[in-house]
Specification:
Length: about 120
Amino acid sequence: MLSILSFAAAAIWVAIVLLPWRPWSTHEVLEVDTTLPDGPSESGGLTVVIPARNEAAYIRPTLLALAAQGGSPKIIVVDDHSDDDTAHQALSVPPLDVEVIPSAALPEGWSGKLWALEQGLAR
């Protein structure tokens, strides 16, 4: 009995490794616009929403990495009741258009991160 189960498990792993992952089932295609000039381009109205709770140590490097990507996106940082210096750190990155909004109280039925994203989206 054990050898049958071992053979079945081995057969399943062989099938997983050898069968294709259905590349035809992916319908999304990202087209490259070759008419754009090389280098950083304008964001075209891109808005980045970042929910942040007690992220003072990480928000500045995150925003600097975003700035290094080029363009000029609008960035909304939702300060989700942080106990540290998250809001001040987010506002201290000069090359970016950063707006920090304080999170409202958490309504019944919402989780914290999703509520913060909802507020950033509404903004």
